Amino acid sequence: MQKILILINDAPYGTEKAYNALRLANQLNKAHEEVEVRIFLMADAAACAVAGQSTPNGYYNIERMMKFSLNKGTKVKICGSCANARGLKEDQLIEGTRLVTMAELTDWVVDSDKVITF
To answer: Among 9, 10, 70, 96, which has the minimal tally of Cβ within 10 Å of its Cβ?
Structure first.
């Protein structure tokens, strides 16, 4: 099974990097069931995993996109020190996401066939 790691560094809103990263993840999940999709959130992207996001009608919602990806089997990990620096706690995060260390990111990088950065 091919493993693809998508590394997101940017905030959920303000640019479209997180949006495009999740579009890619979700398309991979739809079109290539044989691929294991992994998402790692760093820096301001840690906020992509915050539960209870509210966006205006007609605007994309990162939480909904993240939940779709999780429901398709994507594993989502968040840099714990990045989340901590932004005041984010585990109980504020979307169910199924995990706060982890850089050691887990390095393991994923070594174990992945492709790493894509947004």
So the answer is: 96
